[in-house]
Amino acid sequence: MVERNPVLTIICHLILLAGAALVCLPLYFAFVAGSHTGAEMNQVPFPLLPGDQFVENAGKAWQQGNFSRVFFNSFVVTLGIVFGKIATSIIAAFAITYFRFPFRRTAFWLIFISLMLPVEVRILPTYEAVADVAGPVRWALDVLGISSVIATLTGYRIDAGFNWSLVNTYSGLIFPIIASATAVFLFRQFFLTVPDELCEAAKLDGTRPMKFLFQILLPLSIPNIAALAIILFIAGWNQYLWPMLFTTDKNMATAIVALKNFVPVGDSEGGWEIAMAASFFVMLPPTLVILFLQRWFAKGLVDSGK
Amino acid sequence: MQPSEATALKGAPKGALFSGWSAGLAGLLAPSEEGLKRSYFKGTGLAAALLSPQLIILLFFFFVPSWKALSLAFVQIDPFGGKSVFVGLRNFVELFASENYRYSAWLTFWFTITQNIITLVIAGALAFAIDHIVRARYAYRTVILLPYAIAPVVTGAMWAFLFNPSVGPIAGWLHAMGLPWDPNLRPWDAVVLITMASVWNHICYDFIFLTAAMLAVPQSLREAAAIDGASQWRRFRTITVPLVMPTVFYLFIINFVYGLFDTFGIIDAVTRGGPAGSTTTLVYKVYQDGFVNLNLGSSAAQSIVLMALAVLFTILQFRALDRRVNYQV
Amino acid sequence: MSKFVRGAAVAGAAACLLASLASPAWAQDKTSIEWWYANGGRVEEGIQKIIADFNASQDKYEVVGIKKGNYEETFAAMIAAYRVGQHPSIIQSSERTFLTMIDSNAIVPVSELMTQQGYTVDWANFVKPVADFYLVGDTPAAMPFNSSTAVMWYNADHFKAAGFDGPAATWPEFEKQLYAIKEKGISECAMALNSDFYWSLIEGYSSINDYPFGTKGNGFEGLDTEYVYNTTPVVQQVERLKKWIDDGVIQLAGQGLSPMQLYTSGTCSTISASTAGHADVEANAKFNWSAAFQPHEEGVEPHNSNIGGAALWVLKGKTDAENAAAAAFLNFIAQPDTQAWWSEWTGYVPVTNAAYEKMKAAGFFEKHPTREIAIKQLSQGTPTVNSRGFRFGNSNQTSAILVEEIQAAWTGQKTVQQALDAAVSRGNEVLRQYEQLHAAQ
């Protein structure tokens, strides 16, 4: 067994305690804020101890915010983002690291560059792209003159008939968020650390690439997939700007949009206590994911350690 | 020819003229083997198929919108899309002439570097500590990860509140220590505040990955080293660090991108870029000018500059670091 | 391990399936239109009540109210949607966006819409300073809805303790009061600075004291307007505010705290803020609160203050049935009963004379005297070129510039004059860009 230095162990505990205290302080104040009445919240100085209104505030928020519906939406959207991003990214990273083909590096940089312009910076055109998915295709057909050929041949006008809007759909909430390269980059980094002998052995056995991916590479990637799934689930769940801009139907809103609606704006004041109480049940699913998936990446790791 | 390449060629169908031609072309188009496994597969069609979902999504939801956004850099445009006037490079000229923009670039540079390093150091210390201890590991990890579940919309507001000089409890403690803390009137305090908030918000991310990476270090290696009599520090340095380096490099890039781009939500909630623009980073400016002020032309010009800078720095980071990271330990 | 992969695959497949099943477009008999608004809290409750009442009052139309964030977010969301033809019928937009909306070519002037749809609205019956602001020619382009102006809220207990009846009428006298309150240690801070101070204490100050803010009648007479507030007593006003900040008389709330909270909690003795604060103050202030007119400069006959809040705009590109629904709804909003109820509920000023008279007749202002200050202040003196309002393009942006530069003076990076000079020159660049784009119509 590896021996452990007791002094170092104590230092480590101190570091962790300090870290835990540091990260939990705002959480505590959010709870305090959510457990008072509006009038108590408005006091200066702000109360430092929790009040007794938490359940009431949370109940009020749940009802007003249509949360039973928006929670469902958030789950669909978030799972879609997690699954979609991991699936497309793993195979793309696999192609980039395990295949030799023309434009390999070009493909990598094309994907990588998408990190450099987040959705917030290109939000209006992205909105247009999603509200009119067929736009680029129409444009291409126009430029190539195909649409006029079709129009003359069949009398069918592509411009008029070829519209496809994803506004207020789950797909529209999912796809623009999937289009980012973090996950490809992560899997690339990971695949590069996988010993070459595995692939060599597989090839000697005549294993086909897809079988190698599913039977050897994927199981090895479990810790990374779990870590990434946590990150993506939380990031996806906590998306705000895009769903806010993108959904007009109240029944398509996500939990965070509903939550943000409790945060006071403009001329109207108050309501912080409701917002803070609501923030606790809104953060419940991400919290459960952390608790649950943590085991998975620990388990994956114990296996690989053997 | 490297041995593994020889193996790869051995596995390939012999005498296929096409594959030879394709390999030659590949060599021409991608002269570097960087980021390719020493042992790899062939099959351009399959590779293309594997890449296509990602690339198609990117084409529709990234490249086309980005192109549209960036192409606005040379016009003055009515946000409703009705009128636009071609102005050539004027948006850029105005940008570089603006003192505020130069300050913003300077701020962004230091802010991005500082938060990146501090985040890595703190997350690294926590990950190392949790890797070292045996007891209460699960509890610590859970607690440290927990705040990551709060939406930034809420955390930003809480940070602003805690450090508010009028009512914030933490600001109160700072005042009690005799510090003249006031992010509303002292620009430096505001810069410190957004740096701390950004670091805080991102520690969990780095922590998850570093913990995963450290746990992935095979126990057998450490035990073998311990039997050989290597000290604890030496084991950390010679076994853990090299194995964790690819993850650190990944985090370094991601932190960089995070600091550059994803901190606008925090800045919006904590300082709104103030006081007097002292916490307006480049991306916050892009967001403000594009989304709030609806000055799409200037915002697009800023996006181009920002993207060019980001790509430049990323390439430099790749050159400086990716080659030093040893992926085959 | 493979269990995990399989589980993830099943979950993902389920999500994808649901995603493809989505797009809820139920068939409806009624014509349904959307109204995007930007208020929260009690104001939002009022909005939803009005919508519910309208929907219950008839069976042809249905209005769906959607909150899209704050004013800026709502505006940006509307523009994004407009560009692809997915915009709402009605949008609530702040007074600051007036010129942008007019020049957008994206709106149907409400007076035109109402005429088309066969409603007669007595525009003359709208409270003059409010209606005038939204006029293009003789008829309004937007329906005034939540109109406000800033009043001087004060803590009557604090003022009494300091030996004053209430805030003085002029700035120099008011300044003496604030210093007295501070020196006697009556409260922790004599005044809280509201986050929209540029609206109340700079623009409103210019209106009340009849100082020009820009040339060409504050933009009313042409797009070639220029800001001139760096040459007026606004400089002295900003100097004054800076002195108060340096002396600890005025307190900035900053982020994470609503400035109004500093007042309602009794920490600060005064705040210059919107009359819409009534809902908050009535609910939360546990002291003898009151409000007064905004001060003016010595030797100046005060004029009307500037309006704030927002109006309802009707967007182009809708079917006739949808336009009919929008007109029916706006007609409902213009009714004195709705108006009076809305004003009483929120603290916004009644925007029609009929509603105002109705509230007076019911004795509402005798019970709530502070509710009348705003509307009186909006009508005080004779309107002048300088007090009737502001028509500047991209006003959201120039206001942001003004705030940024004033903060530079407060943080000591610039002198007040330097800061305002910079704000004017940067603001004028924005105006020139706007002119270049919109002049050739």
Automatic annotation (TrEMBL), chain A:
Topology with respect to the bilayer: Multi-pass membrane protein
Superkingdom: Bacteria
Transmembrane listed as a keyword: yes
Transmembrane segments: 6-31, 70-101, 107-127, 139-158, 170-191, 212-237, 274-293
GO cellular component: plasma membrane
Location(s), subcellular: Cell inner membrane; Cell membrane
Biological processes per GO annotation: transmembrane transport
UniProt entry tagged with the keyword Cell membrane: yes
Keywords: Cell inner membrane, Cell membrane, Membrane, Transmembrane, Transmembrane helix, Transport
Gene3D superfamilies: MetI-like
InterPro entries per the UniProt record, alphabetical: MetI-like, MetI-like_sf
Chain's role: Part of the ABC transporter complex UgpBAEC involved in sn-glycerol-3-phosphate (G3P) import. Probably responsible for the translocation of the substrate across the membrane.
Family to which this protein belongs: Belongs to the binding-protein-dependent transport system permease family.
Subunit details: The complex is composed of two ATP-binding proteins (UgpC), two transmembrane proteins (UgpA and UgpE) and a solute-binding protein (UgpB).
Protein name per its UniProtKB record: sn-glycerol-3-phosphate transport system permease protein UgpE
Provenance organism: Paradevosia tibetensis
Gene: ugpE
UniProtKB/TrEMBL annotation, chain B:
Pfam families listed in its UniProt record: BPD_transp_1
GO cellular component: plasma membrane
Subcellular location field: Cell inner membrane; Cell membrane
Membrane-topology annotation of the record: Multi-pass membrane protein
Stored InterPro entries: MetI-like, MetI-like_sf, UgpAE/MalFG_permease
Transmembrane segments: 43-64, 109-130, 142-163, 190-217, 238-261, 300-318
Matching CDD domains: TM_PBP2
Subunit structure, as described in the record: The complex is composed of two ATP-binding proteins (UgpC), two transmembrane proteins (UgpA and UgpE) and a solute-binding protein (UgpB).
Function description: Part of the ABC transporter complex UgpBAEC involved in sn-glycerol-3-phosphate (G3P) import. Probably responsible for the translocation of the substrate across the membrane.
The protein, known as: sn-glycerol-3-phosphate transport system permease protein UgpA
Species whose genome carries this gene: Paradevosia tibetensis
TrEMBL record, chain C:
GO cellular component: periplasmic space
Ranges annotated as spanning the membrane: none
Principal place of residence: periplasm
Keyword Hydrolase assigned: no
Function: Part of the ABC transporter complex UgpBAEC involved in sn-glycerol-3-phosphate (G3P) import. Binds G3P.
Quaternary structure and partners: The complex is composed of two ATP-binding proteins (UgpC), two transmembrane proteins (UgpA and UgpE) and a solute-binding protein (UgpB).
Name under which the protein is recorded: sn-glycerol-3-phosphate-binding periplasmic protein UgpB
